[in-house]
Design a protein that fits this description.
Number of domains: 2
Number of strands: 10
CATH superfamily of the largest domain: Vaccinia Virus protein VP39
CATH architecture of the largest domain: 3-Layer(aba) Sandwich
Shape: globular
Largest sheet: 7 strands, mixed
Order of helices and strands: HHEHHEEHHHHHHHEHEHEEHEHHEE
Strand order of the largest sheet: 6-5-4-7-8-10-9
Low-confidence stretches: none
Distance between the termini: 62 Å
Strand content: 15-25%
Helix content: 40-55%
CATH topology of the largest domain: Rossmann fold
Radius of gyration: 25 Å
Number of helices: 16
Length: 350
């Protein structure tokens, strides 16, 4: 394409651009990769741990065994990104970020380790596109010991718990409910919160042995042992009880299609007629164009072969519901209330 330059045409300063320049958008995409690499490298090298107390460039470089000139430029970038702060000639992990970036802190962002592990997978994306995903011997397994459950509980209370309870408590069916099960309830805070909002509600926190015992301690801590109890079991295999008015599940289930049908069938069998099933999970729009983070996650699952979380469209989930006696009613977007594109999927037993 050539540009027609006419010396006798209008003044260059007044010419309207022939199309909108997409360079800012494209550079932003590339910069996202670069920023991610810089941040993960800093995390991997332990910069945020070392800089929990103010350090000069030379002090940080010495502890990192790194080149001082490159280290200084890296630190300046991290300051611009908002994860470090300048204090005179020293650098320190940003106070609001330290609880999440300094190892050993109660809110340390363990999930960032997944991003570090997946860097090579993304770098090999072109090979996967040509050859297909290689079978992975590594299957992601969650560790649910006391330390982890307590960490999950603290993270849940940073807004997700409150937002979820505030939405569900407004349902007339919730106010009329007398029996509820929290499937894979872990720490039990959702079930405890629901019991606080409905004084006539009895709640079962259903989770695996070893986890249910921890949930029971949370229940007793909040003084609700008379109406909330923890029950041990595997909801993919064992009976989960019956006569529930509401079944709730929050990000604990991620099985394949066969496992999902079995799970939803168990849920339907446990509910009273007209009872609600509410799942807090990640879904894809029916046109598979959003949410972007969920689409990226779905792609990552495909290229890694990890099989940790099988994402589906809203319609695909509703179709599964229909086959087991549930009718999908609504999908509530929670992304404005939290950092992740979570959704509440609501269904009713027909």
């Amino acid at each position: 394409m050539t540009i027609d330059v006419d010396s006798g045409a209008q003044r260059l300063a007044e010419i309207k651009p022939p199309l909108e320049d997409q360079a800012p958008f494209l550079w932003d995409l590339v910069a996202g990769y670069e920023k991610g690499q810089i941040f993960l490298s800093a995390l991997e090298m332990g910069i945020f741990n070392i800089a929990k107390e103010p350090k000069t460039v030379d002090q940080l470089a010495a502890e990192l065994e790194a080149d001082p000139s490159v280290t200084g430029k890296l630190l300046d970038v991290l300051v611009s990104m908002g994860v470090l702060c300048n204090e005179g000639d020293s650098y320190v992990t940003a106070p609001k970020m330290a609880p999440f970036l300094v190892e050993g802190e109660p809110y340390f962002a363990r999930y960032l380790n997944f991003a570090k592990e997946s860097r090579n997978q993304w770098a090999d994306l072109n090979k996967v596109l040509k050859n297909g995903p290689a079978s992975s011997e590594h299957k992601h397994e969650h560790k649910y010991d006391r330390e982890t459950i307590d960490w999950i509980a603290r993270g849940t209370m940073l807004g997700r718990l409150q937002a979820t309870i505030q939405i569900i408590r407004e349902y007339p069916e919730f106010q009329a409910a007398r029996k509820m099960v929290d499937l894979g309830g872990g720490h039990g805070l959702f079930g405890i919160g629901f019991a606080q909002e409905n004084p006539d509600l009895e709640v079962v926190i259903y989770d695996q042995p070893g986890v249910a015992e921890i949930a029971q301690e949370y229940i007793e801590r909040y003084g609700l042992a008379e109406r909330v109890k923890a029950v041990k079991g595997d909801y993919t295999k064992d009976q989960i009880g019956s006569d529930y008015d509401i079944a709730f599940e929050a990000c604990s289930f991620g099985g394949n299609a066969d496992q999902a049908r079995s799970f939803y069938s168990r849920v339907a069998e446990s509910l009273n007629a007209g009872g609600l099933f509410i799942a807090e999970t990640f879904t894809l729009d029916d046109n598979r164009k959003a949410p972007l983070r969920s689409l990226i996650w779905d792609l990552k699952e495909q290229i890694s072969g990890d099989g940790h979380m099988h994402l589906r469209t809203n319609s695909e989930i509703f179709s599964m519901f229909e086959k087991v006696g549930l009718r999908g009613e609504s999908v509530i977007d929670l992304s404005e209330k939290m950092a992740m594109p979570m959704r509440l999927v609501v269904a009713r037993k027909v």
